[in-house]
Design brief:
Layout (H helix, E strand, L loop, with lengths): L1 E2 H7 L5 H9 L3 E3 L2 E2 L6 E2 L5 E3 L2 E2 L7 E6 L28 E2 L8 E7 L2 H8 L7 E8 L4 H9 L2 E2 L2 E2 L4 E8 L4 E8 L6 H8 L4 E9 L2 E2 L8 E3 L2 H13 L2
Parallel strand pairs: 9-15
Antiparallel strand pairs: 1-4, 2-3, 2-5, 5-6, 7-9, 7-17, 8-9, 10-14, 10-15, 11-12, 13-14, 15-16
The protein binds uracil.
Uracil binds next to helix 5.
Length: about 240
Amino acid sequence: MERLQKVMAHAGIASRRKSEELIKTGRVKVNGEVVRELGIQVSNQDEIKVDNVPIDKEEPVYYLLNKPRSVISTVEDNKGRKTVREFFPQVEQRIYPIGRLDYDTTGAIILTNDGDFAQLLMHPKYEIEKTYVAKVRGLVKKETIKKLEKGLVIEGKKTSPAKARVISQDRKKEVTMVEIKIHEGRNHQVKNMFTAVGHPVLKLKRETYGQLNLAGLQPGESRVLKAFEIDSLKKEALKNS
Ligand code: URA
């Protein structure tokens, strides 16, 4: 017997946390009955349906997408915006993105149907490193880089130590390209960090996610992750636990 949300996550429905939301909102049935409780245990014999569709046990699949601008990091969008899911018309499995990139942020994002993997990588305590390149307004000084690295209080909470460096500056246009490596994944984290030091972000790209980079992927292109890449992401997450 296993907890319902765990079975759902394994079946590739969603992360465990998202599965819990599906349960709480009454979208899950076990043997024909809506279940809203989170603790319930199910076995292989039980018939589980989400939105009246039986779940089946899918093979786990993993993709890296170079997300273009003007694309939302969800599976569906009620405002009709293009979603990251639409870049995988050939994929039958119920894949969804691990974490979010803003609508106007480009770069590396993983999609999978492996709920445990998604949860592992998203958990703040596991701290996968991500590298961003930000084009920001103004000429960024050394002291500012130090502040970004040491941590800033955003919405009442200090950001974890980061690494940052100036890549280039355009003195005429008064813009700076900065590379920043962070481990957290709070909402709009990089933009909020730069806003906090007085340099609003004009463009943002995620260049790396753990060991993964965007080599060979144009915006909108994706590739299957290799087994060693999946393992190395798991290892990187677990080494910080
Ligand atoms: N930080 C942001 O501000 N936006 C993103 O899309 C990712 C990290």
